[in-house]
Amino acid sequence: MSAILIDNLCKSFGQQPVLRNVSLQIEHGEFIAVLGPSGCGKTTLLRTIAGFEIPDSGTITVGERCYSAPGQHLPPEQRELSVVFQNYALWPHMSVAENIEYSLKVKGMDRANRRIRVDAALDLVGLDGMGERRPADLSGGQRQRVALARCLVTRPQLVLLDEPLANLDVHLRAAMEEEFTRFHHHAGATLLYITHDQHEAMALADRIVVMQAGQVMQFATPQELYRQPACEMVARFIDDGRVVPVGDIEPDGQGSAWVTLFGLRVKLRASHTQPVLPKGKICLHASDLQRVAHDAPGFDGEVRRVIYRGGYSQLEIEPLGDPQCRLTLMQSDAAPPRIGERIKLAATDGWVIPH
Ligand SMILES: Nc1ncnc2c1ncn2[C@@H]1O[C@H](COP(=O)(O)OP(=O)(O)OP(=O)(O)O)[C@@H](O)[C@H]1O
Predict the structure, then answer these.
(1) pLDDT band at 88, cuts 50/70/90?
(2) What is the complex's ipTM, to 2 decimals?
(3) What fold does the segment set 241-352 form as a domain?
(4) Which of 13, 49, 197 has the most ligand 1 atoms within 8 A of CB, as the residue to mutate?
(5) Which Pfam families match (predicted)?
(6) 3-state secondary structure string, 159-173?
(7) Residue 40 C-alpha to ligand 1 middle, in angstroms?
């Protein structure tokens, strides 16, 4: 049985549909990231699972329990899950230990057992010995750890996290990513993690739900999203993939297809069910392109922009005869080409976007 089963969930605010037929099947212990541009409905999805919003239609089942169905709404406090918000929501007048302990107290657990649980939770999030401090005396990262410990102490089977790192600086975020991985490993809980940061999602999640305008565009592993985007939106969204037109798509039914890319016949990866088509689009990442010698097979492009990224340069290339198109190429060479220079490129990999 799945940990979470969401079937055809719809939710509108007034006239605006915010969740459109969202269906997801999430397994026990999975770390799921929900990724998408601002306003695509991520938080609404989380709030609907938590019970803070009532869906217009569709069902949510967690384990064996129905949380939402037409005419049926389990109140938030009866849902067996824990939510970690972006703003931590710690009680300022309580110490760190009291913040963490509170939910156990409400459940009527005795003092000795509470102490053991709180110490274990503090230890797990790396806040050993900080139990007596007030939240105001902690850094942003430490406060987020308290919020995590508070969630962990109840040993939830399902944890919903709404952009928990959004308020932290880039270094702290990286440190906390490690913390989340450890947390997930130890807690063994199913995690649903909302973020608009694809690098965070790729680094943390077993599978990622990519949403746009209330719809699930693809639900897959980070590797699949990168290598086999299901549509143009996912192709562009993940790691700045470039969508490029191609002609004469001739699939072999074995996971490859010949296509005409800038006048050149090349063999790229394709779905096993890819049909023969006179034209289509492919996804090219920077790592799919290679600079080649001028007399080697390839296509010409003009360097439009050179961005130094520390140790390598990112080149923005305009393929000759296609001024609408921009390709990216990374070059580790200390002497990158100049803007306006003409270079030759070959596609060493690429994915035919399913029609
Ligand atoms: N209570 C509400 N009443 C009316 N509209 C709402 C309400 N909550 C959310 N919305 C709208 O629903 C849409 C989706 O919002 P939601 O917060 O779910 O998106 P999101 O993907 O989490 O965005 P962000 O990444 O910016 O947090 C937005 O257009 C938002 O303005």
Answers:
(1) low
(2) 0.96
(3) OB fold (Dihydrolipoamide Acetyltransferase, E2P) (2.40.50)
(4) 13
(5) ABC_tran
(6) EEEECCCCCCCHHHH
(7) 7
